[in-house]
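Subject: design request, 126 residues
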């Protein structure tokens, strides 16, 4: 490469080895880390994006806190009613900006209704 020419930088994510079958963590070249949380059925229950501050192997619970850039949590209902449909999700953009979304389904598992509200007073939907 000649001096003064633009260069292409690729950031290939570094993935932590899965312990139970799903990817649990990815680290990106821009000093961000994405963590994935699963339930006993290996359904994705949450993901969070934050900085590399936490070393590999440290358990993360995918709960929104001030160090996270964004957190997404998924609810599949109670264990005896979990057919794989997401019945609710929580979106956290900071420790104070949190939104909740809820879904109901018809008899053929199509979304019948979706609703959203701010979980923290003072939040407005983007």
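Subject: RE: design request

Done. Sequence follows.
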């Amino acid at each position: 490469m000649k001096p003064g020419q633009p260069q292409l930088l690729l950031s290939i994510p570094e993935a932590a080895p899965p312990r139970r079958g799903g990817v649990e963590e990815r680290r990106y070249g821009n000093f961000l880390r994405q963590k994935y949380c699963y339930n006993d059925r290996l359904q994705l229950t949450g993901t969070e994006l934050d900085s590399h501050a936490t070393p590999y192997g440290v358990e993360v619970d995918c709960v929104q806190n001030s160090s996270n850039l964004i957190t997404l949590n998924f609810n599949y209902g109670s264990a005896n009613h979990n057919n794989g449909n997401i019945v609710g999700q929580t979106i956290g953009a900071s420790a104070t900006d949190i939104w909740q979304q809820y879904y109901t389904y018809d008899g053929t598992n199509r979304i019948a209704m979706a609703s959203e509200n701010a979980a923290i007073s003072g939040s407005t939907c983007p």
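Confidence is low (pLDDT under 50) at residues 7-11, 121-126.
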